[in-house]
Specification:
Blueprint (H helix, E strand, L loop, with lengths): L2 H6 L6 H19 L16 H20 L8 H6 L2 H4 L3 H22 L14 H23 L7 H21 L3 H4 L6 E7 L9 E7 L2 E6 L6 E5 L1 H8 L12 E4 L1 H10 L4
Helix pairs in contact: 2-6, 2-7, 3-6, 3-7, 8-10
Length: 274
């Protein structure tokens, strides 16, 4: 991990915890899918059904397992990995459930064997197995939210996991800005105006407050309790889901807006990842 990432991710979890969470989040995702109509549309992932969501998560697990296991130095074709999913996507729900469980187990077995420092290709700012353990934890965590919201199941994330997911998301936004990957994200510049994120339900050691500066060269952030031009305040899980466009920001909702609502909307409209 670089000094920059250490500064931006004070609550980064251990490699073993990420591995544990991949299994735990996959199991919870599977529980949301059990007995559900897998043809249901997923409101937070336009054009996806629950089957598509499951295939995406399971395909991502197998893709990363291949990258880490083969110590890939160049991009592995996700399309080739997903081509093997079609029979499972269209088959028996029990087979899909078993396939999801197996993919998570295979991925975690490889990650545990590799440890966090194995060099391998990634699309991001770090090129090692630790990057992928963290990324697959939060990929699974957030897509579990998509499934839970679709079927009306309760959803909660452990505070240390939710805080780390938010840290990682901010790092992704800055990476996309620097790499020029998404035009909307590149536009997240507002002359140094600031956003404050404040979780209202966490212990002090979680340090679940963030100050985000929308500078003209890209965003910068820190864990801090400071006044800002606009703020989002509420339970940590809800703040996370609002930032990742999984929960709408509505008057009287669980997340309160303070200050410049237009600045909050400016951020939300341009920070979508998928």
């Amino acid at each position: 991990m670089t000094d920059d990432d250490m500064r931006h991710a004070p609550g980064r979890l251990s490699h073993d915890r990420y591995c544990d969470e991949i299994i735990a989040q996959t199991d919870l995702l599977r529980s949301h899918l059990t007995g559900a109509d897998l043809g249901m549309a997923v409101p937070t992932c336009p054009d996806w059904t629950l089957r598509d969501l499951a295939a995406h998560v399971g395909g991502a697990h197998r893709w990363v397992e291949t990258i880490v296991r083969t110590r890939a130095t160049e991009r592995v074709s996700l399309r080739e990995i997903l081509s093997a999913v079609e029979p499972v996507r269209d088959g028996d729900p029990a087979a899909l459930d078993a396939w999801l469980a197996e993919g998570a187990r295979l991925l975690v077995d490889v990650l545990r064997e590799a440890g966090p420092g194995l060099a391998c290709w990634s699309w991001g700012w770090e090129s090692h197995s630790g990057f992928w353990a963290r990324r697959m934890t939060h990929e699974t965590l957030i897509h579990r939210a998509d499934a839970a919201l679709t079927v009306g199941a309760a959803y909660e994330a452990a505070p240390e996991v939710a805080a780390d997911a938010l840290d990682e998301w901010l790092r992704i936004v800055r990476f996309f800005q620097d790499a020029g990957i998404k035009e909307d994200i590149a536009q997240l510049k507002a002359g140094g105006r600031t956003l404050h994120l404040h979780a209202t339900d966490t212990a002090p050691e979680i340090a679940a407050e963030w100050l985000i500066e929308l500078g003209d060269d890209g965003i910068a952030w820190s864990r801090a309790h400071e006044k800002a031009d606009a703020a989002l305040r509420g339970p940590l899980t809800d703040v996370l889901l609002t930032l990742l466009r999984r929960e709408p920001l509505t008057d009287g909702g669980r997340v309160e807006v303070l200050g410049d609502r237009e600045l909050i909307d400016f951020w939300l409209e341009r920070s979508a990842f998928a």
